[in-house]
Design a protein that fits this description.
- It is a single chain.
- The protein has one domain: P1 Nuclease (Orthogonal Bundle), CATH 1.10.575.
- It is globular.
- Helix content is 60%, strand content 4%.
- The longest helix has 29 residues.
- It is mainly alpha-helical.
- It is built from 14 helices and 2 strands, in the order αααααααααααββααα.
- α8 crosses α13.
- The structure holds zinc ion.
Length: 334
């Protein structure tokens, strides 16, 4: 029979283990999660035309593996954070006529500091798009891959409804944790089994800024439902059914219970799948449009060189900053 000390020590060990697990979970907080961003970049490749698909397919592993690099940069550079979101509710209600669409006009009206404080995602996507056109024009294989992968990340982020709300983790409405619940837990549970990732073909985007704003409006309109539906579900279910301690990769973690996640996913009525499919289409269409704008360079002859010493150093420092685990600015978990 176990004595009091033995039981107490076991309890202590479980608490320590739990604390470590929560610590690990906090450190690995990525927008759309590792899983979602990888899926989006990966599946976008299959929407490309024959002239592009060979190069992109050959490098599909790179595009998936590096899909979360921009989130790693958030641990190293303070300017990185605002590129991943925009608080549309700061600018009133749909159709958000308070906020000029162009960077110059918005900056003239609100100042750059204020825009940075509430997120600059739509404008940063245009910067990345121009960089991708330049990389295609220069037939720089390394830059094409890096910029394609990064652009895929930022486009993925704006399809997440809570990336367009200042209540990004439900912190204002007693729903802390909902950010990761919607964008990581739900796709991880349901995407492989239930989502249809066959989407068709990429399209040419005539006006990338307008296209970007349309996706942001959709996300902003959906963010109300994301919060409201979880709130009402939470009120109808006893709290002991909401969370569960479950084993994940060999460690026990506290997370939204399968039962609760299934209910929430059901009442969202396909929203996560729709946003993910839309993100995949957007990413492929941006890649395709950049290639067209660059004059359709021949990608068959492109060779990806080994990474340079500087590129290796940059990747090492990103990895170290991420492992130290101090995000600079807003994270998806607070
Ligand atoms: Zn992000």
């Amino acid at each position: 029979m176990m004595d009091w000390w033995g039981q107490n020590n076991m309890k202590k060990n479980r608490i320590i283990l739990l604390a470590i697990c929560l610590f690990i979970l906090h450190f690995n907080a990525f927008c759309w999660g590792f899983f979602g961003h990888r899926q989006i970049n990966y599946h976008a490749v299959f929407l490309l035309p024959p002239e592009m698909i060979r190069f992109y397919k050959t490098n599909i592993q790179y595009l998936a593996d590096h899909a979360t690099d921009p989130d790693k940069r958030r641990y190293a550079f303070p300017e990185e954070g605002p590129r991943h979101y925009i608080d549309m509710d700061h600018y009133g209600f749909f159709p958000f006529s308070e906020l000029p669409r162009s960077w110059e006009h918005a900056k003239g009206k609100f100042t750059e500091d204020s825009l940075q404080a509430h997120g600059i995602a739509p404008w940063w996507i245009q910067v990345m798009y121009r960089r991708l056109i330049k990389a295609f024009k220069e037939k720089d294989a390394g830059a094409i891959l890096k910029t394609s992968s990064d652009l895929g990340h930022y486009l993925g982020d704006i399809h997440v409804p809570l990336h367009t709300s200042s209540n990004h983790n439900g912190q204002k409405t007693g729903q802390t944790g909902i950010h990761g619940f919607w964008e990581s837990r739900l796709p991880e549970m349901f995407a492989n089994e239930q989502y249809d990732m066959v989407i068709g073909k990429a399209s040419f985007i005539k006006d990338p800024l307008d296209f970007t704003w349309r996706r942001i409006y959709e996300s902003a309109l959906a963010s109300d439902s994301v919060l409201r539906l979880e709130k009402s579900l939470s009120g109808s279910i006893s709290s002991d059914k909401k969370f569960a301690y479950e084993e994940r990769n060999g460690v026990v973690v506290r997370q939204y219970a399968n039962f609760y996640a299934t209910k929430y996913h059901h009442i969202l009525n396909g929203m996560v799948e729709r946003r993910m499919r839309s993100a995949i289409f957007s990413v492929a269409s941006f890649w395709y449009s950049a290639w067209l704008e660059a004059g359709q360079p021949d990608l068959k002859t492109l060779i990806v060189n080994e990474l340079s010493v500087e590129q290796h150093q940059e990747m090492d420092s990103l990895q170290k900053a991420w492992q130290r685990g101090k995000i600079i600015g807003r994270s998806c978990t607070n």
